[in-house]
Amino acid sequence: MTPFELNNRLAVITGGATGIGLGIAQSFIAAGARVVLCSRSEQTLAKASQQLGPQAAYRVHDVSESGTSESLVSEIEENIAPISFLINNAGVHLKKPSVNVTREETQKVLDVHVLGALELTTSVGQRMLDRGDGSVVFIASMTSLIGLPQVVAYSAAKSAYLGMTRTLASEWGPRGVRVNAIAPGWIDSQMMRKALASDPKREEKILQRTPLGGFGQPEDIGWATLFLCSPAARFVTGVCLPVDGGASIGF
Ligand SMILES: NC(=O)c1ccc[n+]([C@@H]2O[C@H](COP(=O)([O-])OP(=O)(O)OC[C@H]3O[C@@H](n4cnc5c(N)ncnc54)[C@H](O)[C@@H]3O)[C@@H](O)[C@H]2O)c1
Ligand SMILES: O=C(O)C(=O)C[C@H](O)[C@H](O)CO
């Protein structure tokens, strides 16, 4: 057995039915895990789950809805299995000049990425702490590490993941629960295509500043997330791993 195997253990992946979340689900299943995809559209979830096969299940869940995590987590643990891995991947993008961003728009972005992910993480985390075992990954962004124009609320939310990761890692590490983050660069998904559509020259600029060239694929984030959750990363906690073709190096 290699230290990258996940041995039928259960991963909950928010926003798991599309893009990067689906790539993470594919990588986890390839490593022998079971997955529960959680997002808002039953139709999209059912399609993704069918594509993934018998190792996948889904639950309709809006992470931004306050007070809903406990019932989701207890239902999954009662009917499927204890949750070994939580991947906070659900996200919404907001791209516009910072002076035009309203408080309400910022609140919506923070509700999904920060408040929603934190509520779910503490619900799952309490059970992981009781069992003395578990691993949490936050899908942050290159905007957690470097400046990108016109994404001020999104960047605030993704940067919050760095503090949350370090705090939870230091608090939960002694009790067997690891917490890490990944900062994806430009990864080919609906979100990225939409973000770049407003500025056709941006794609060229991005490709120029990416030493490894091209855009990443969802499975690139999948393999990195798998590493962080696997026994191979048993001595890794509190880090944010960039997976961006080198774009955040600044050359
Ligand atoms: N694609 C990129 O270049 C890139 C770069 C850095 C970070 N990210 C992050 O990766 C994650 C996945 O994004 P993606 O690129 O796959 O785009 P995507 O739009 O395909 O995925 C986002 C997913 O989150 C789900 N979601 C949104 N709000 C939700 C809510 N309230 N409750 C539950 N689910 C919700 C969406 O339904 C969707 O499935 C996001 O957190 C995004 O910010 C993406
Ligand atoms: O580079 C840009 O203009 C972007 O808005 C990129 C996005 O922030 C990125 O793809 C999502 O995190």
UniProtKB/TrEMBL annotation:
<dbReference type="InterPro" id="IPR036291">
    <property type="entry name" value="NAD(P)-bd_dom_sf"/>
</dbReference>
<keyword id="KW-0472">Membrane</keyword>
<dbReference type="GO" id="GO:0047001">
    <property type="term" value="F:2-dehydro-3-deoxy-D-gluconate 5-dehydrogenase activity"/>
</dbReference>
<feature type="transmembrane region" description="Helical">
    <location>
        <begin position="12"/>
        <end position="37"/>
    </location>
</feature>
<protein>
    <submittedName>
        <fullName>2-dehydro-3-deoxy-D-gluconate 5-dehydrogenase</fullName>
        <ecNumber>1.1.1.127</ecNumber>
    </submittedName>
</protein>
<feature type="transmembrane region" description="Helical">
    <location>
        <begin position="136"/>
        <end position="157"/>
    </location>
</feature>
<feature type="domain" description="Ketoreductase">
    <location>
        <begin position="9"/>
        <end position="189"/>
    </location>
</feature>
<dbReference type="InterPro" id="IPR002347">
    <property type="entry name" value="SDR_fam"/>
</dbReference>
<keyword id="KW-1133">Transmembrane helix</keyword>
<dbReference type="InterPro" id="IPR057326">
    <property type="entry name" value="KR_dom"/>
</dbReference>
<dbReference type="Pfam" id="PF13561">
    <property type="entry name" value="adh_short_C2"/>
</dbReference>
<comment type="similarity">
    <text>Belongs to the short-chain dehydrogenases/reductases (SDR) family.</text>
</comment>
<keyword id="KW-0812">Transmembrane</keyword>
<keyword id="KW-0560">Oxidoreductase</keyword>
